[in-house]
Fold this sequence. Notes:
Structural class: alpha+beta
Keywords: Signal
Distance between the termini: 17 Å
Radius of gyration: 25 Å
Order of helices and strands: HEEEEEHHEEHHE
Shape: extended
Number of domains: 1
Oligomer: single chain
Largest sheet: 8 strands, antiparallel
Number of helices: 5
Strand content: over 45%
Number of strands: 8
Amino acid sequence: MKIQNSLALIFFCGLGCIQTATVFSFGNQDTIYDNDNYLVAKYQYELDLEYHTEYYSGLYTGPDAPYSGYQYQLYQIFLQSTARGILDLKILNWYSYKIDLKFKPFKISPFGQWIIYMRPETGMPFDINLYASTWVEIGNLTTHITENTRTCYTSVYDYIDDSTTNSPYPDSITDDCPFNELYQTNYFDPYWTFDLGSIIFPDSFKKAFYGEKRIYSWWILGNYDW
C-alpha cells in the first residue's frame, strides 16, 4: 500500500502542470439600456466545461484532527461545469448594483493529494501524513452581490489657498464624486446560495460519495493514526 501511495503521489505531481483546460465555452455580453442620467443596464452570461487543478494550504482545522498545530498542502484536479449570469446596473448615475449568479451543475474530483504534518514548534511528535481524497458536488449555486454609490470629497485647504480655481463643495460628479472601491460592499446573498445535492440526495449516497471522501491515509512515521 505504501508503494501505491507513493506512486499515486508521483503521478499526481505530474498532473500539476495542468492549470485550466477548457473543453468548451460560450457566452455573450450586451447592453440592455444605456442612459447615464437614468439607467445603465448590462448583462453577461457564459457556460463552460473545464478541468483544472486547485491548490490550498494553511493550518489544518478539520474535525478529524485530535490536536491543533497541523499544517497542510492540498493539490487537487477537478472536472466541472459552470453556468454564470451577471446583471450590472447603474441607477441615476449615482448608485451601482451588480448581481453575479454562478451555478455549478457538477464539480467532481477523482483525486486530491494532501500533505499534512505536525509543525515542529508545537512540541508534539513530528509526522507527515499522505492523505488522498475524492470530491463530488452537484448543483451548487452562489449569488454574489456588489453595491456601491458615489462618495464626494473636496479640500477646504485648497479652497482657502486658491479660491479662484477651487471650490468648497464638489462641482463635478465624475471628478469629485467617484465610485470609490474603498466603500464598495461585497457579500453572498444567503437566500440564493445553496447546495442542491445535499438537499436531494439520500443520506446513504451522501455518506458514501458526496463531498470529500477518503481514498487512503498514511502517517509515515506512525506517530498518529487519525
